Amino acid sequence: MNKKLAAALSGGAVLVVALSGCSSKKDSGPDPKLVAWAKTVCDAVPAQDKKIRAANASIAKIATDSNLPPKTAKDTYSQAFQDMADGYKAIAAAIGTAGAPPGVSDGAKRQQDAAKNLNGLSASYADLKKKVDGLDTKDQGKFAKGLHEVADQTKEIGRQSNSGTEALKRLEQGDVKAAIAKQPSCQVAASASASATAG
Fold this sequence. Notes:
This is Small secreted protein. The protein is an all-alpha fold. The protein has nine helices and no strands. It has one domain (about 30-190): Up-down Bundle (Four Helix Bundle (Hemerythrin (Met), subunit A)), CATH 1.20.120. The two termini are about 25 Å apart.
Protein backbone atom coordinates (compact mmCIF):
# COMPACT_ATOMS: atom_id res chain seq x y z
CA MET A 1 0.00 0.00 0.00
CA ASN A 2 2.60 2.54 1.07
CA LYS A 3 5.02 1.26 -1.57
CA LYS A 4 2.44 1.93 -4.26
CA LEU A 5 2.14 5.52 -3.11
CA ALA A 6 5.89 5.97 -2.87
CA ALA A 7 6.40 4.53 -6.35
CA ALA A 8 3.79 6.86 -7.78
CA LEU A 9 5.59 9.81 -6.24
CA SER A 10 9.14 8.84 -7.07
CA GLY A 11 10.86 11.30 -9.36
CA GLY A 12 8.96 14.34 -8.13
CA ALA A 13 12.23 16.24 -8.00
CA VAL A 14 13.11 15.33 -11.58
CA LEU A 15 11.19 18.32 -12.88
CA VAL A 16 13.58 20.71 -11.18
CA VAL A 17 16.49 19.18 -13.07
CA ALA A 18 14.90 20.46 -16.29
CA LEU A 19 15.69 23.96 -15.11
CA SER A 20 19.40 23.45 -14.76
CA GLY A 21 22.47 24.59 -16.61
CA CYS A 22 24.70 22.47 -18.72
CA SER A 23 27.91 24.05 -19.93
CA SER A 24 27.42 26.19 -23.02
CA LYS A 25 29.72 25.77 -26.00
CA LYS A 26 29.01 29.25 -27.35
CA ASP A 27 32.02 31.50 -27.78
CA SER A 28 30.06 34.67 -27.10
CA GLY A 29 27.96 34.79 -23.98
CA PRO A 30 24.22 35.49 -23.85
CA ASP A 31 22.71 38.95 -23.48
CA PRO A 32 23.54 40.38 -20.00
CA LYS A 33 19.84 41.16 -19.54
CA LEU A 34 19.03 37.51 -20.14
CA VAL A 35 21.74 36.47 -17.68
CA ALA A 36 20.16 38.75 -15.05
CA TRP A 37 16.77 37.17 -15.82
CA ALA A 38 18.23 33.69 -15.38
CA LYS A 39 19.73 34.68 -12.03
CA THR A 40 16.30 35.76 -10.76
CA VAL A 41 14.89 32.34 -11.63
CA CYS A 42 17.86 30.22 -10.62
CA ASP A 43 18.38 31.83 -7.22
CA ALA A 44 14.99 30.42 -6.17
CA VAL A 45 15.73 26.88 -7.35
CA PRO A 46 18.20 25.26 -4.87
CA ALA A 47 16.15 25.72 -1.69
CA GLN A 48 12.96 24.51 -3.38
CA ASP A 49 14.74 21.64 -5.10
CA LYS A 50 16.08 20.56 -1.70
CA LYS A 51 12.59 20.78 -0.18
CA ILE A 52 11.02 18.70 -2.96
CA ARG A 53 13.76 16.06 -2.83
CA ALA A 54 13.43 15.82 0.97
CA ALA A 55 9.67 15.33 0.63
CA ASN A 56 10.19 12.48 -1.84
CA ALA A 57 12.80 10.94 0.45
CA SER A 58 10.47 11.03 3.47
CA ILE A 59 7.78 9.21 1.50
CA ALA A 60 10.25 6.62 0.23
CA LYS A 61 11.48 6.06 3.77
CA ILE A 62 8.09 5.33 5.30
CA ALA A 63 7.20 3.06 2.37
CA THR A 64 9.69 0.52 3.71
CA ASP A 65 8.15 0.48 7.19
CA SER A 66 5.10 -1.78 7.24
CA ASN A 67 4.71 -1.33 10.99
CA LEU A 68 4.40 2.44 10.81
CA PRO A 69 1.40 3.74 12.80
CA PRO A 70 -1.29 5.26 10.53
CA LYS A 71 -1.06 8.60 12.35
CA THR A 72 2.69 8.82 11.64
CA ALA A 73 2.17 7.86 8.00
CA LYS A 74 -0.60 10.42 7.64
CA ASP A 75 1.52 13.20 9.16
CA THR A 76 4.49 12.31 6.95
CA TYR A 77 2.46 12.27 3.74
CA SER A 78 0.71 15.49 4.71
CA GLN A 79 3.98 17.33 5.34
CA ALA A 80 5.56 15.92 2.17
CA PHE A 81 2.65 17.04 0.01
CA GLN A 82 2.70 20.46 1.65
CA ASP A 83 6.42 20.81 0.96
CA MET A 84 5.96 19.79 -2.67
CA ALA A 85 3.11 22.26 -3.09
CA ASP A 86 5.20 25.03 -1.55
CA GLY A 87 8.29 24.13 -3.57
CA TYR A 88 6.61 24.14 -6.96
CA LYS A 89 4.65 27.28 -6.11
CA ALA A 90 7.86 29.12 -5.16
CA ILE A 91 9.59 28.15 -8.42
CA ALA A 92 6.50 29.23 -10.37
CA ALA A 93 6.54 32.53 -8.50
CA ALA A 94 10.21 33.06 -9.34
CA ILE A 95 9.49 32.46 -13.03
CA GLY A 96 6.46 34.72 -12.86
CA THR A 97 8.36 37.49 -11.11
CA ALA A 98 11.22 37.29 -13.60
CA GLY A 99 8.82 37.92 -16.46
CA ALA A 100 9.48 37.00 -20.06
CA PRO A 101 13.13 36.24 -20.87
CA PRO A 102 14.51 39.36 -22.63
CA GLY A 103 15.14 39.15 -26.34
CA VAL A 104 13.70 35.66 -26.70
CA SER A 105 11.21 34.91 -29.44
CA ASP A 106 7.92 33.69 -27.94
CA GLY A 107 9.56 34.10 -24.52
CA ALA A 108 6.44 35.43 -22.81
CA LYS A 109 4.35 32.40 -23.79
CA ARG A 110 7.09 29.97 -22.80
CA GLN A 111 7.49 31.70 -19.44
CA GLN A 112 3.73 31.77 -18.80
CA ASP A 113 3.34 28.11 -19.77
CA ALA A 114 6.10 27.05 -17.38
CA ALA A 115 4.66 29.08 -14.49
CA LYS A 116 1.16 27.75 -15.22
CA ASN A 117 2.35 24.14 -15.18
CA LEU A 118 4.25 24.61 -11.92
CA ASN A 119 1.30 26.32 -10.26
CA GLY A 120 -0.91 23.46 -11.42
CA LEU A 121 1.45 20.95 -9.80
CA SER A 122 1.44 22.98 -6.62
CA ALA A 123 -2.36 23.01 -6.52
CA SER A 124 -2.50 19.25 -7.12
CA TYR A 125 -0.15 18.52 -4.23
CA ALA A 126 -2.11 20.89 -2.01
CA ASP A 127 -5.23 18.93 -2.90
CA LEU A 128 -3.49 15.66 -2.02
CA LYS A 129 -2.55 17.13 1.35
CA LYS A 130 -6.21 17.95 2.02
CA LYS A 131 -7.23 14.41 1.13
CA VAL A 132 -4.58 12.88 3.38
CA ASP A 133 -5.52 15.24 6.21
CA GLY A 134 -9.10 14.01 5.92
CA LEU A 135 -8.21 10.31 6.27
CA ASP A 136 -9.46 8.45 9.34
CA THR A 137 -6.47 6.85 11.04
CA LYS A 138 -8.69 5.13 13.64
CA ASP A 139 -10.18 2.85 11.00
CA GLN A 140 -7.40 0.82 9.34
CA GLY A 141 -9.63 -0.29 6.46
CA LYS A 142 -10.79 3.22 5.60
CA PHE A 143 -7.28 4.56 5.98
CA ALA A 144 -5.86 1.94 3.61
CA LYS A 145 -8.60 2.62 1.07
CA GLY A 146 -7.96 6.34 1.33
CA LEU A 147 -4.24 5.90 0.71
CA HIS A 148 -4.98 3.79 -2.37
CA GLU A 149 -7.13 6.61 -3.72
CA VAL A 150 -4.35 9.09 -3.03
CA ALA A 151 -1.88 6.81 -4.84
CA ASP A 152 -4.20 6.65 -7.85
CA GLN A 153 -4.39 10.44 -7.94
CA THR A 154 -0.60 10.70 -8.00
CA LYS A 155 -0.61 9.01 -11.43
CA GLU A 156 -2.38 12.04 -12.86
CA ILE A 157 0.10 14.30 -11.07
CA GLY A 158 2.87 12.30 -12.74
CA ARG A 159 1.43 13.28 -16.11
CA GLN A 160 1.29 16.89 -14.94
CA SER A 161 4.91 16.66 -13.87
CA ASN A 162 5.88 15.45 -17.36
CA SER A 163 4.05 18.43 -18.86
CA GLY A 164 5.83 20.73 -16.43
CA THR A 165 9.20 19.29 -17.40
CA GLU A 166 8.45 19.83 -21.08
CA ALA A 167 7.32 23.42 -20.39
CA LEU A 168 10.56 24.15 -18.54
CA LYS A 169 12.60 22.62 -21.35
CA ARG A 170 10.81 24.84 -23.86
CA LEU A 171 11.48 27.85 -21.66
CA GLU A 172 15.20 27.17 -21.45
CA GLN A 173 15.87 26.60 -25.15
CA GLY A 174 18.52 28.55 -27.04
CA ASP A 175 19.99 31.62 -25.39
CA VAL A 176 17.97 31.00 -22.22
CA LYS A 177 19.82 27.74 -21.70
CA ALA A 178 23.16 29.49 -22.16
CA ALA A 179 22.16 32.14 -19.60
CA ILE A 180 21.00 29.50 -17.10
CA ALA A 181 24.28 27.63 -17.59
CA LYS A 182 26.09 30.64 -16.14
CA GLN A 183 24.13 30.49 -12.89
CA PRO A 184 25.86 28.63 -10.03
CA SER A 185 22.53 28.23 -8.22
CA CYS A 186 21.00 26.20 -11.05
CA GLN A 187 24.20 24.17 -11.39
CA VAL A 188 24.06 23.34 -7.67
CA ALA A 189 20.44 22.18 -7.95
CA ALA A 190 21.25 20.05 -10.98
CA SER A 191 24.22 18.45 -9.24
CA ALA A 192 22.21 17.71 -6.10
CA SER A 193 19.32 16.22 -8.05
CA ALA A 194 21.66 14.12 -10.17
CA SER A 195 23.33 12.78 -7.04
CA ALA A 196 19.97 11.95 -5.49
CA THR A 197 18.91 10.13 -8.65
CA ALA A 198 22.18 8.21 -8.79
CA GLY A 199 21.81 7.22 -5.17
